[in-house]
C-alpha cells in the first residue's frame, strides 16, 4: 500500500475510534456512490453524520480541513443524498470533518457541521 494510503487508513481508524468513544455508532466506512466516497457514516441519538476524514503527516501546507474543497463537498452531498434515499431516517443529517495531523504531535480535531448542503 502506498504511504499516502496507509496514512489515510490510519487517520480513518483514529477517527472511528474517536467517534466510538464519543458514543457514535459506525454505520458505514468508505461508502461509495459513483465517484464519491463518504469516509465514515455514523449516528447518535440525534444525527446521521457524514464524516470526511483528512489526515496529513504535518501541517506545513495548511490544516487538513482546508483541503475539503467545494467540489469535494458537492460530491459528498450527492453521495449522502443517495445513501439517505436507500436508507431513510427521521434523524437530521450533518456533515462533519475530522482533521488529523500526525507530526510533530498527534492532533485530532472534530469539526461538527463543517459545511451545509
UniProtKB/TrEMBL annotation:
GO molecular function terms noted in the UniProt entry: endonuclease activity; nucleic acid binding
Protein name: UPF0102 protein Oweho_2768
Family in the record: Belongs to the UPF0102 family.
Keywords (A to Z) from UniProt: Endonuclease, Hydrolase, Nuclease
Pfam families cross-referenced by the UniProt entry: UPF0102 (PF02021)
Coiled coil ranges: none
Species: Owenweeksia hongkongensis (strain DSM 17368 / CIP 108786 / JCM 12287 / NRRL B-23963 / UST20020801)
Amino acid at each position: 500500500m502506498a504511504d499516502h494510503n496507509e496514512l489515510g487508513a490510519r487517520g480513518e481508524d483514529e477517527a472511528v475510534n474517536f467517534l466510538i468513544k464519543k458514543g457514535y455508532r459506525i454505520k458505514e466506512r468508505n461508502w461509495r456512490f459513483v465517484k464519491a466516497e463518504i469516509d465514515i457514516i455514523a449516528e447518535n441519538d440525534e444525527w446521521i453524520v457524514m464524516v470526511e476524514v483528512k489526515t496529513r503527516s504535518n501541517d506545513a501546507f495548511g490544516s487538513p480541513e482546508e483541503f475539503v474543497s467545494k467540489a469535494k463537498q458537492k460530491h459528498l452531498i450527492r453521495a449522502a443524498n443517495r445513501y439517505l434515499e436507500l436508507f431513510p431516517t427521521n434523524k437530521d443529517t450533518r456533515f462533519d470533518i475530522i482533521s488529523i495531523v500526525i507530526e510533530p504531535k498527534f492532533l485530532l480535531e472534530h469539526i461538527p457541521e463543517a459545511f451545509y448542503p
